[in-house]
């Protein structure tokens, strides 16, 4: 049995129907809009929701989620004409090369959302901001070449969106919500819901998690691994050799897919990941800044005492003699 939803795709500026827009899950499912911009999605009864990407040459791609509540009511969305970003001036800014290549736009919600989160975290806690800068320093070593490879293939773009970008984006949205506004329970619940739906069952979360675990352990992939994963395996193993990239990208990605497979508490998964943040690679603040910077860092993990103490232990080992300041900031239990 299947259920059906009619989707109408327009040009955002003119509201004209867009013929020939591709609706795809990246794994052979989907098709193209007709001369009126319409597409009828036929979805197996096994699924209660389904995420697809809408793309068309000359336009910025976007995602659309089909769900049962839409049955019988035509759905409408639009694509914006793609506007290339201005050339980099070499100062400031963060370039999400892989996310841009996969989503098809430097202005996609995933790219702009990641930039906004980085800016918010750095504004709240300078120590965390310096860690993010160090992560990007390593990310830039491999990401442009990998992004170029992804951009050459529509199938690769769709696959990377489904396997990497959407789950990772949802993970960081929950992590950001817990770090920046954990008391907004409605927003936290929504972020948890979106993270749970970011790893659809049709992609077999348990298998994806197992492939990521093998990569993290440096073990060979099985013969039946997806073609996209084996195609990108050399670049992925090269990226895994960068410790900050491993913590910032591969570990949360594996936790996301494993959590989807085992129905784990994702707040606890995020807390465990944040508690292992490699802040020991960041230069210690000056004595005058230490108290303020530790307090601002502690505010990012106030939602979980275990994460606070793990971060405090990491910093104490890296910065001997800071135990009193760490305890005052709440990053170490008194007497630890």
UniProtKB/TrEMBL annotation:
NCBIfam families, sorted: CFI_box_CTERM
Give the protein's recorded name.
Answer: Peptidase
This chain's source organism reads: Rugamonas brunnea
């Amino acid at each position: 049995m299947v259920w059906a939803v009619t989707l109408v795709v327009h040009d955002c500026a003119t509201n004209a129907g867009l013929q020939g827009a591709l609706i795809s899950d990246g794994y052979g499912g989907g098709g193209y809009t007709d001369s009126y911009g319409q597409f009828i999605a036929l979805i197996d009864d096994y699924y209660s929701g389904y995420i697809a990407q809408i793309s068309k040459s000359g336009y910025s791609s976007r995602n659309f989620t089909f769900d049962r509540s839409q049955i019988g009511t035509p759905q409408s969305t639009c694509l914006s004409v793609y506007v290339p970003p201005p050339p980099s001036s070499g100062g400031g800014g963060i370039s999400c090369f892989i996310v841009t290549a996969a989503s098809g736009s430097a202005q996609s919600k995933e790219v702009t959302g990641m930039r906004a989160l980085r800016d918010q975290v750095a504004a709240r806690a300078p120590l965390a901001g310096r860690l993010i800068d160090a992560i990007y320093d390593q990310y830039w070593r491999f990401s442009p070449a990998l992004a170029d490879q992804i951009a050459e293939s529509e199938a690769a773009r769709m696959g990377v969106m489904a396997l990497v970008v959407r789950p990772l984006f949802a993970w960081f949205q929950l992590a950001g919500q817990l770090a920046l506004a954990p008391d907004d329970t409605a927003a936290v619940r929504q972020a948890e819901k979106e993270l749970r739906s970011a790893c659809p069952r049709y992609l077999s979360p348990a298998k994806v998690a197992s492939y990521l675990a093998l990569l993290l352990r440096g073990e060979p992939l099985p013969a039946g691994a997806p073609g996209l994963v084996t195609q990108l395996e050399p670049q992925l193993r090269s990226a895994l050799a960068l410790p900050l990239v491993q913590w910032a990208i591969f570990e949360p990605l594996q936790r996301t897919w494993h959590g989807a497979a085992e129905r784990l508490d994702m707040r606890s998964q995020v807390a465990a990941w944040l508690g292992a943040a490699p802040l020991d690679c960041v230069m210690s603040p000056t004595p005058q800044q230490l108290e303020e910077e530790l307090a601002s860092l502690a505010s990012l993990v106030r939602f979980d005492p275990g994460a606070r103490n793990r971060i405090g232990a990491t910093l104490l080992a890296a910065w001997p003699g800071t135990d009193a300041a760490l305890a005052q900031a709440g990053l170490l239990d008194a007497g630890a």
